[in-house]
Amino acid sequence: xxxxxxxxFAKYGEKAQDTAKRGIKAxxxxxLAALLVAVTFIxxxxxxxxxxxxxxxxxxxxxxxxxxxxxxxxxxxxxYEVVDVKNELFSTEVSIEYLLPLTVKxxxxxxxxxxxxxxxxxxxxxxxxxxxxHDILSCSLDTFVDKAQSLEITDVEYDVEVFTESIPYSxxxxxxxxxxxxxxxxxxxxxxxxxxxxSVKYVNGVKVSTEVLREEITEYAVxxxxxxxxxxxxxxxxxxxxxxxxxxISKLTAPSNLxxxxxxxxxxxxxxxxxxxxxxxxxxHKTSTGVWPKPGYVAVDPKEIPYGTKMYIVSxxxxxxxxxxxxxxxxxxxxxxxxxxxxxxxxxxECVKFGRRNITVYFLED
Length: 366
Fold this sequence. Notes:
Mean pLDDT: 81
Helix content: 10-25%
Strand content: 35-45%
Structural class: alpha+beta
Largest sheet: 6 strands, mixed, barrel
Shape: rod-shaped
Distance between the termini: 190 Å
Strand order of the largest sheet: 19-23-20-22-21-24
Order of helices and strands: HEEHEEEEEHEEEEEEEEEEEEEEEEHE
């Protein structure tokens, strides 16, 4: 039996010894690996210092993600930007800067941006918000933004516009002794054109004002002229002519028995008087006596000259032959001694030309 045991150990003892040695070596290797992991774990854990410009926070961390590191810290705001990171062997210095709300209103559009503190002009450049020279800002571009800020930008633009405009022509009345008193004609009457260059101001896209920079006449207007002849008609040997054959302003038909002498005065009349007269034209209304106004109907003070009175009228300076007339109208122009009589003319231009002058009125016999 003893011999068998010896033989067993002799046979298997060497193997058992090798197995034991290998077991011990494996155990040592496992222990070394565990120690290496532990050391690595300990070395990877760093102290991270976070500065926000006012306060300094320290935190142990195994990551470089600042968001994870500051998750448990009581910061003033969760809106910030990392501005600097310094890595050392066993520590990291992180600087953050809080972002501030900047509200920008342009026209009817409002947007809010999270920005770092700084000069407003620089911030707008970073946001690609362009400010023109003419724009109006609610605060200066030099404003230092270090807290919540609102800015309103009024967009002001200037544009140049060029357009063509019509030049109206004027109407004038000319009395000429080159033509007989039965002559009347009109010449001219053509509008001109001009090129107008303007500076147009837009505020937030809406046109608010226009300033004329220059005007250039491209075609001159041709004024209209109505010419009345004043040359005395040729009289017969006796010097008597029918009033109906003499050109005059009145459009009333003179009686056939109304004759004029060589001086242009009625041969027969009951009385004559020199009065102060003005002129008036169409108002869109009938006369006081119910007839539509036309040259020949005159306005009077009916207390002095009754409606229906027949007259023959010439200007005292001989430039106007108004002709056969009937008192048919009245008005405010009669009162206050402004005029004794008002003669109806076809246009405002004729009235202006006539102005205020003395007239000789011949009261005709019925």
